[in-house]
Amino acid sequence: MGIIQKQATQSTIVSLVGTAIGAVSQVMLPFIFEEEDQIGALSLLNSISKIFATIFTLGFAQITLQVFSSFRNDEKGHSGFLMFAMLYSIAGAGLGLITFYWFHDFFVGVGDDYKLIRSISYLIFPIIFFKIFFANLDAYMRMLFASVVGIFWEGLMLKLGILVGVLLFWLGWIDFQYTAYVYSFALSLPGIALIYLTFKKTAVIQMPERSLLAKDKRSAIISYGVYGILGAASSILVVSIDQVMLNKMVGTDAVGVYSVLFFAGMLISIPARGIKRISASVLSESWKKNDKANIQLVYEKSVNNQTVIGIYLFVVGWLCIEPALTFLPDYQFALYVFFFVGLGQLFDMMTGINSEIIATSQAYKMNTYFNFVLAVLVIGLNFVFIQEWSVVGAAAASAIAMFIVNIARWFYLKQKFDFQPFDKRTLYHVGIGFLLVLFFKWLPLPLNPLTQMLVYIVAITLIFWTIIFYFDLAPDLKKWWKKILSRINPS
To answer: In whole angstroms, what is the distance from residue 265 CA to residue 258 CA?
Structure first.
């Protein structure tokens, strides 16, 4: 668990800094862009490119999880795995760009209502290309236990690049068109960086050895790739299809409103990302050794830690979002977008690394099936709920779908491997969070919005963590906190 905790901590710190930068950008967007469709158009550059880039990684992350451990050898350049990743990415990028060209009008829209997004949609091509390289090379770097590298470029530098573009627009130095150029470069930057850094990280560069592409390995790699494509396609639809469907069913301006509240709700999941990224490589090694005890331990710890942190962030966020939106009256109708997006992320955190456990096991195909069901639920529920509740409906659809599928994943792991990560502490965590929300919602605070948010943050932080640490409801986090305090005050 040591390497997971260390790299998860590093990743969380980097993510938090990046999130702070991203939050500044997101907060600025509604104030500096005259129309919501400008925000929506920029968001669509990201969401549409993410759909194609994820599908046309061609399942490389699944292949890497399943086979890399067999070729791990620094002195032999891991049998040429890096060049295999490069060639695979080139093939995927070519197919992805051709496919997007064919389906451009379907995803972007046709007509005057979509004039703005169509004027910058050509920027999606290079973004797809470099996102494919980033995703595949990041999977390779994670197997080298260098998960922080990817999160640094995607979680920090990308957001810094976006902030630069927003600031330049705000200062009047560039127009919207050039802002889109900066935005697209920022989205491409992680891929550009990892192309260089993976070569630097690999001691011996060579073409793939025959053993890597031997006949007995080839069929397995194709199988992993196919299921990886299906799984990736399903999973990315969950986080990106809502914006595409809103664009088609409501309009680009709705995407602009939704993206701002969606970003706020996604903040809850930041601490879990570091754990999920590094846990995949550790789980892969544990499955190789058939060390189910370690997998059970990692599973338990991920559930306990992510539940505590997720509930704390959700409670703080839900209490603060309403006073925060008083500064954005045009966005107040979308208040519950944050609630449902945040709740969906909380469900995902509370079930720990269930998806990663399945993905790294020999039952990896089940992950594809679960993701497929998740995608069908999201699309179906979106179609119904968007018509009824517009942007709030899209958020509610995602939350319901994530709850159903995560319960199914938990049940599968319990039945198949007898893994059970929950204990009575989970109920205590939920109960504490629920009572805090009730108390502060019913407690009148006749203060200005900024003071009200500050009071919520300070009061909830003190009350929540005092209870958690006093009753030892999160041993790992308590130990981590004591370590931090000892470094601050060694005596």
So the answer is: 10
In terms of residues, how long is the chain?
A: 491
Three-state DSSP state, 387: helix
At 363, list the tokens. 């039952």
Whether 204 shows a pLDDT value over 80: the answer reads no
Q: Is the pLDDT of residue 114 over 90?
A: no
Give the orientation angle of helix 292-324 with respect to helix 270-288, to 10 degrees: 170
Distances (CA, A) of 176 to 115, 180, 247: 14, 6, 19
Higher pLDDT, 271 or 238: 271
Report CA torsion sign: 338, 306, 59, 45.
positive
Buried b (16+ CB within 10 A) or exposed e, 165-194: bbbebeeeebebeebbebbbbbbbbbbbbb
Structure token pair of residue 237: 């639809």
CB–CB of 486/349 below 8 Å? no
Which class for 479: exposed (0-12), middle (13-18), buried (19 or more C-beta within 10 A)?
exposed
Query: What is the distance between the alpha carbons of residues 278 and 273, in angstroms, rounded to a whole number?
Result: 9
DSSP per-residue letters across 60-80:
HHHHHHHHHHHH--GGGGGGG
Helix (H) or strand (E) holding 462: helix 449-470
Q: Average pLDDT, stretch 309-317?
A: 95
Task: Report how far apart the first and last C-alpha atoms of the chain are (Å, whole number).
Answer: 28
Question: Taking a C-beta distance cutoff of 8 angstroms, is the pair 64, 144 a contact?
Answer: no
> Per residue, what are the HEC states of 401-443?
HHHHHHHHHHHHHHHHHCCCCCCHHHHHHHHHHHHHHHHHHHC
Would the pLDDT of 2 be above 60?
Answer: no
Packed helices 124-143 and 36-55: angle between N→C axes, nearest 10 degrees? 50
Measure CA 431 to chain center: 27
What is the C-alpha separation between 378 and 384, in angstroms, rounded?
Answer: 10
Q: Give counts: helices (H), strands (E), the chain.
A: 19, 0
Question: Distance (Å, rounded) from C-alpha 19 to C-alpha 308?
Answer: 20
Q: How confident is the model at residue 77 (pLDDT cuts 50, 70, 90)?
A: low
CB 393 within 8 A of CB 386: yes
Distance CA 101, CA 291 (A): 46
Residues 366 and 412: beta-carbon distance below 8 Å? yes
What is the token pair recorded at 338? 């944050």
Place of tokens 């935005």: 183
Residue recorded with tokens 């600025």:
28
Distance CA 453, CA 451 (A): 5
Contact in structure between 395 and 265 (CB atoms under 8 Å): yes
